[in-house]
């Protein structure tokens, strides 16, 4: 199974429509597309069987809200069951030919089994990842707006209200604890207010 993710603009409903369009643009077929539920789809690796392409995949796109204006899309692709049927039939066919013509088909049988193993490993790994990435690449990532720095105070006011180094150090540690999830928002705000009273 391969996974790929992106954050897009829009609520879950808008992201669901956007994701369904991206799947179709990547050459896939959407089986179900209900907001709030995973989007089920099927997709084939572009190309033909002659160049080891046209491999079938089943996929699911899970959409979750990041905030009111953005959603996260997680795309997963996995080999369709029919691929394993094809590989099994290839090996059985080679075994039957070897049983009928023992001497002439030993080497082709070994090569066929090695080829089936190679194709299965590639199809489960990098090819599956390429298909997940193909869907995600057609989704427009959310624009990340850098926060604007606050206006700098006049020099006299800055000197009068400059916090001591120990308070600044404590505020920094407090922020790290909050961002790592050790402190809740309420605990963080309470401790921050206490530290700022010391300035």
Structure notes:
It contains seven helices and five strands; from the N terminus they run βαββββαααααα. With 199 residues, it is α+β, with helices and mostly antiparallel strands. Among the domains are: 2-79 and 125-136, Alpha-D-Glucose-1,6-Bisphosphate, Chain A, domain 4; 155-197, no CATH class. Strands 1-5-4-3-2 form a five-stranded antiparallel sheet. A hairpin with a 4-residue loop joins strand 4 (56-65) and strand 5 (70-79). Helix 2 packs antiparallel against helix 3. The protein starts with a strand and ends with a helix.
Please render the helix and strand layout as text:
Blueprint lengths: L1 E8 L2 H14 L3 E4 L6 E6 L11 E10 L4 E10 L1 H20 L1 H23 L1 H11 L18 H6 L4 H15 L5 H13 L2
Antiparallel strand pairs: 1-5, 2-3, 3-4, 4-5
Helix pairs in contact: 2-3, 6-7
What's the rounded overall pLDDT mean?
A: 78
* Outline type: elongated
CATH architecture of the domain at 2-79 and 125-136: 2-Layer Sandwich
Helix/sheet category: alpha+beta
Q: What letter string, H or E per element, gives the SSE order? A: EHEEEEHHHHHH
* Total count of strands: 5
* Cα Rg: 28 Å
- Beta content comes to 15-25%
Major β-sheet, in short? Answer: 5 strands, antiparallel
Query: What is the strand arrangement across the widest sheet?
Result: 1-5-4-3-2
Helix content: 40-55%
CATH topology of the domain at 2-79 and 125-136: Alpha-D-Glucose-1,6-Bisphosphate, Chain A, domain 4
Broad CATH class of the domain at 2-79 and 125-136:
Alpha Beta
Low-confidence parts lasting 5 or more residues at pLDDT below 50? none
């Amino acid at each position: 199974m391969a996974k790929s993710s992106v954050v897009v603009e829009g609520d879950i409903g808008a992201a669901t429509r956007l994701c369904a369009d991206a799947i179709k643009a990547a050459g896939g077929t959407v089986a179900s597309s209900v907001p709030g539920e995973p989007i089920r789809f099927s997709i084939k690796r572009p190309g033909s069987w002659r160049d080891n392409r046209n491999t079938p995949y089943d996929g699911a796109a899970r959409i979750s809200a990041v905030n009111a204006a953005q959603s996260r899309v997680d795309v997963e692709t996995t080999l369709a069951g029919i691929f394993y049927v094809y590989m099994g039939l290839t090996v059985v066919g080679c075994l039957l030919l070897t049983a009928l013509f023992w001497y002439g088909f030993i080497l082709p049988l070994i090569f066929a089994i090695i080829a089936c193993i190679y194709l299965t490993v590639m199809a489960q790994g990098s090819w599956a990842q390429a298909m997940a990435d193909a869907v995600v690449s057609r989704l427009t990532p959310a624009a990340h707006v850098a926060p604007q720095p606050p206006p700098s105070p006049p020099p006299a006011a800055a000197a009068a209200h400059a916090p001591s180094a120990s308070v600044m150090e404590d505020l920094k540690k407090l922020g790290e604890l909050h961002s790592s999830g050790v402190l809740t928002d309420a605990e963080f705000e309470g401790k921050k207010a206490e530290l700022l009273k010391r300035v």
